[in-house]
Amino acid sequence: MENAHDRDDHDDEDDHDDHDDESTAVRFNWWYSIDLAFFIFLHGEALATRLRAALVRLAGDRAAYLIDITKGTIHGVIYGILGTALAQGVLAAIGFVIAGVPGAMLLGVVTFFASVIPVGPPLVWGGAAIWLFQQGEVGWAAFMAAWGFFLVS
């Protein structure tokens, strides 16, 4: 017969197994993404030629138009992501300088790269706000949190 303590231990083990499964899935997704990107870059021209030929067979005369639309959409998304990341990095760096955070420019660059990850920038400016708070700079910590929340993110 199992007592309550044994059930709690078993539940903790299940939670640990779920966490392991999740981290394994994340690692697999990262590896798969990197692997896929490698082969797309390696064989991109051949892949594009085959996709173009398949689209011509499917769409006929509209194939060139559809390819141009797709190309424009992809470029727009990439430029939008990079432009947003640049703006977030610059605004974060300005906030770090105003608040007197050491390494403000480096943290601005880190914010730029973190901006392509959901919830990336708050990890940087939030960390700076926590650091300011721990230094006894409560006002500057509040400023950094507000600046990050309203202007950076």
Please give the structural blueprint.
Blueprint lengths: L3 H39 L1 H16 L3 H37 L4 H11 L5 H15 L3 H15 L1
Helix pairs in contact: 3-4, 3-5, 3-6, 4-5, 5-6
How would you explain this protein's 3D organization?
With 153 residues, the chain is mostly helical. 87% of the residues lie in helices and 0% in strands. The chain has helices at residues 4-42, 44-59, 63-99, 104-114, 120-134, 138-152. α3 (63-99) runs antiparallel to α4 (104-114). The mean pLDDT is 87.
Uncertain runs: none
Query: Taking all residues together, what is the mean pLDDT?
Result: 87
Radius of gyration (CA) equals 24 Å
Residue share in helix: over 70%
Summarize the structure.
With 153 residues, this protein is mainly alpha-helical.
Name some characteristics of this structure.
mainly alpha, single chain, 6 helices, 153 residues
